[in-house]
Amino acid sequence: MFHFFVSVGTAASQKLEEVRDEIKTFYQLFKRESVFKYLFLIVLLMVIAGALFMYLEYDKVIAANPDKKILTDFDKITTVLYWAIVTIATCGYGDITPGTNAGRIMAIIILYLSVATVSLFSANLASALTTKKIIERLKGKGIAMLRKQKGLFILCGWKKNMDDLVKKIMQLNHGLTTEEIVIIADINEEDINRFKADPELSRVNFIQGEYYNTSVLNGVNLKDSRKVMVLADSRGNETEVDFRTIMAVISIKSIASTAYVCAEVLNHQYESYLKIAMCDEMIFIKDYSRILIANASYSTGVAHIIQDLLDPDTDAVLVTERIPEKYFGRTFGDYRNDVHNQTHDALLGVLENTGTLFAMKQYALKEAQKIADMSKLVGNLGKLKRIECNKPVLNPPGSYVIPNNSMGIFVRRVESAPTEGAVHG
Fold it and tell me: Which of 54, 60, 90, 216 could serve as a FRET partner for 239 with CA atoms 20 to 30 Å apart?
């Protein structure tokens, strides 16, 4: 019996949460479409019209009541409000009509004002309700579910050939389903319909709105997400695109400081801003292009090598994998020998300080405080500012000591099954 009441209570709580989310959604849509503003204007117009009718057509107010001898203030108020509502709604029952010229002029003015106000109210209300229906249809899941679901892969922003990008992401992230992908972008219904026309992508979730706006970002569970990627949105010039990226990272981290955020940036000059915003990983598109061209001028075939390593359709891919804790504090030579004996993967090096920058600094702070020597403590605390998240150390010497929270960097053949904890590059 106890379990029955617990289950009933849980179901009721979930239902209440869904109702609360629905109310919040309607409130946000009504606010965005100015429904409340026009509703306030209608109410204000109704009060003014009622007051003027009471003043100009008092005899008509008396005549409209059956018992004219016993007439309370409540009767007068309901009469004038009834007339005002019927007039503003343009129903025109004709049971109460103005009898003076002043009253008729007032009624004409109220009618003209009410036609415009009611039309705007109706149009914006219809727009809000239509948007609600579109959101429900396009998301594939309710807002409440996206706020609770863990392990979501979140893409902020919109790019050309977005469908191909999402397919590549799914190809590299083994086990990732379309239902776990959420795209947050300020795009129109036509773009979403075109994207969802592909059967493979029909169940991808969408949240329409500015992806750097906290009210929009709160529509998804950022805290327990698998990864959040902020894309260099295709709208606007380069400066605008990078500013939106920085704002998005700041907003995401303000909501969920532990969320892993990878941001695509066009100009390297904004790196310092992203570091201040605690961005965990940065992709500098233009720098990669310049570096690749420079390396291609020095070594033959470098461009083809890099392309094959990053292309999921080739025989080998570049991956990172968590190093077992037993190797922390031991040499790279020991780890390399064991990897060589156990797998056919090519070990390229070590990725230090893996995970979110917030988590790394929290860990480093705890480790620094374990030292009793005050001078060493101050020195270690100073190192916190210089922590570089996800720092690659390629081809280190055999004597290199593997630090905590490190991952191995491998070239792995595609037919090799990904191990638990593998992160694909």
Answer: 216
